[in-house]
């Protein structure tokens, strides 16, 4: 039951992040200056469990403006559309939330 409640909380948080990112990407794309700063970053997953790493990569890809390109030995290579998107991912919030799903 605890895992279920944690998972529901994660889904709610992820839905909010997807909505926020959608608005950010729309704002960037509709701006006549097209202020993009694409980059590829690497993130090391806190969790060593393969399922958690795949969940992290999938959650990143679901978020507009980001795409998980590769996952190898717990390191995710991610393309971001903007510097702000890269900063958000590198802050580690999504990684912490995914790793927290298995804490009891």
Characterization of this structure:
- This protein has 104 residues and is α+β, with helices and mostly antiparallel strands.
- The chain is 56% helix and 18% strand.
- A three-stranded antiparallel beta sheet has the order 1-3-2.
- Helix 2 (50-62) packs across helix 4 (93-100).
- The longest helix is centred in the first third of the chain and has 29 residues, at 2-30.
Summed up, the helix count is: 4
* Poorly predicted ranges: none
State the helical fraction: 55-70%
Question: In order across it, which strands form the biggest sheet?
Answer: 1-3-2
Q: Tell me the strand percentage band.
A: 15-25%
Q: What's the assembly state of these chains?
A: single chain
Strands, count: 3
Rg result = 14 Å
Q: State the shape.
A: globular
Distance separating the two termini: 11 Å
* Helix-strand makeup class: alpha+beta
Key structural traits:
4 helices; 104 residues; 3-stranded antiparallel sheet; alpha+beta
Write the layout of secondary structure elements.
Layout: H1 2-30, E1 39-44, H2 50-62, E2 66-72, E3 75-80, H3 83-90, H4 93-100
Antiparallel strand pairs: 1-3, 2-3
Helix pairs in contact: 2-4
Summary of the model, kept short:
The chain has helices at residues 2-30, 50-62, 83-90, 93-100; strands at 39-44, 66-72, 75-80. It has 104 residues and is α+β, with helices and mostly antiparallel strands.
């Amino acid at each position: 039951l605890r895992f279920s409640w944690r998972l529901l909380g994660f889904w709610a948080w992820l839905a909010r992040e997807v909505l926020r990112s959608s608005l950010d990407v729309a704002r960037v794309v509709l701006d006549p200056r097209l202020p993009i700063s694409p980059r590829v970053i690497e993130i090391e997953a806190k969790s060593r469990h393969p399922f958690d790493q795949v969940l992290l990569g999938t959650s990143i890809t679901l978020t507009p403006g980001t795409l998980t390109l590769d996952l190898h030995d717990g390191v995710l290579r991610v393309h971001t559309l903007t510097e702000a998107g890269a900063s958000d991912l590198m802050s580690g919030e999504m990684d912490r939330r995914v790793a927290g799903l298995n804490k009891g």
